[in-house]
Amino acid sequence: MQIRQIAPFPQDFLWGASSSSFQAEGAWHEGGKGDSVISHTETEAQTTAFDEGVDFYHQYHTDIGLMKEAGLKAFRFSIAWTRIFPQGVGKPNPEGVAFYHHVIDELSAASIEPIVTMYHFDYPQHLVDKYGGWLSRRSINDFVTYAKFLLDEYGDKVHYWITINEQDHITKMPYRLGILGKTYSESMREEYQANHHMVVASAKVFNLIHTKYPGTEVGPALSYQVYYPATHSPEDTEAAMDLSLLTQDYLLELQCSGRYDPVFRHYLESHNAWPDFPDSDLDYIKANSPDFIGVNYYSSDTVAYMPANGDDGEIGGKPVPSYERGIYQKVRNKELPTTQWGWTIDPRGLKLSLRKLYYEYHLPMIVTENGFSEEEEVSPNKPIDDTKRIAYLGDHIRAVQEAISLGIPVFGYCIWSFTDVISGHSGMNKRYGIVAVNRTNFDLKAMNRLPKKSFYWYQQLIKKGAY
Ligand code: BG6
């Protein structure tokens, strides 16, 4: 759609950046923290990367100082559930509770809006050992108890809450549910049961916030993207539609409308993965929907039909499935450049995603993650010249502005990530930050903070309030 006139960003637009507890904090066994399902074996780098993180636990004061210098209006971070309740439930850990008060208070003192994710992949290991974690319906109450504790403790200081980060990714990576030694296709029944419990738990937290904590707003953060058909063929078009349904549309439809899409239901049933639940769940979910949608966008995918070849239903690819025979396969899009990791660079895909989401759900949105990864050498004397990151971020911010100009309500944009953090699967080799941290996979060094060129670029952009 041609844009008549580019609209300015709203005055109160939340120019932000993001991180998560397990990727940033470190201090794995300090301050009374309990264990989560994320272990240091998760990264291919085979290091103790998550144990030390990038030391946010000890260096948050420095980091928030840098956020202030950059002029950030918002910082999205997650609370480590096991820092609050080391066993997932039971007695809260005063040191952990105090830590997040310090973080939130420092942010507020720097006029930076805290956007708090309650759960970003690091589920308490104890709950998995006790009753199977999300696989059991008992998990719903434990999540709500944890959320209620956070709201009672920090609710008067935090306006924006995010319940769960990238629930579909949790669902499709069994080890993040505490299921070990099984692939996605081997544990689908359990995964979609867990997925259902997460949706009910989120609806209960939406209800809690709407009834008891007026003045706060809540939503999920979902990984969202566009899927282009590889050719004009109807088969490829249907494959693209299917992959969008299987990775994101099913979840939004369930979370925002309390409805399992019939085609998705058909898919689950044909894989013997339809979850058990009382009918009343769907009415409850429908009556308790989010206030906004957090959108994590990095790239788009292109999809072709994949014939069954007699191996109907074989699912493969890492870390999340990239093909399923008889349904779809992801293919390379020759029109689009990629990062070193083969992720397409597609700013227009962000605009399309925001348009599609608004068309379907009519909710305000915030871009909760968007960022560019690269292997980078950190030197103490010279800021990293990350021109490719600047171009990526600028083009995506422009795409958000175009969406706003078309009338789509987007109230913020958070770069992933503020400092470099430990990448989920590639450790410190894959850096996203606008501030470098001088550790590597194998050498912790002093973990000093060194702003990259993109830091100064973002500072100027925020100052102008425009791209
Ligand atoms: C999102 C997650 O999926 O993508 C982040 O919410 C993650 O936790 C980010 O780090 C980038 O993924 P990766 O694997 O490149 O670090």
Automatic annotation (TrEMBL):
<protein>
    <submittedName>
        <fullName>Glycoside hydrolase family 1 protein</fullName>
        <ecNumber>3.2.1.-</ecNumber>
    </submittedName>
</protein>
<feature type="active site" description="Nucleophile">
    <location>
        <position position="369"/>
    </location>
</feature>
<dbReference type="InterPro" id="IPR017853">
    <property type="entry name" value="GH"/>
</dbReference>
<keyword id="KW-0378">Hydrolase</keyword>
<dbReference type="InterPro" id="IPR018120">
    <property type="entry name" value="Glyco_hydro_1_AS"/>
</dbReference>
<comment type="similarity">
    <text>Belongs to the glycosyl hydrolase 1 family.</text>
</comment>
<dbReference type="GO" id="GO:0016798">
    <property type="term" value="F:hydrolase activity, acting on glycosyl bonds"/>
</dbReference>
<dbReference type="Pfam" id="PF00232">
    <property type="entry name" value="Glyco_hydro_1"/>
</dbReference>
<keyword id="KW-0326">Glycosidase</keyword>
<dbReference type="InterPro" id="IPR001360">
    <property type="entry name" value="Glyco_hydro_1"/>
</dbReference>
<dbReference type="InterPro" id="IPR033132">
    <property type="entry name" value="GH_1_N_CS"/>
</dbReference>
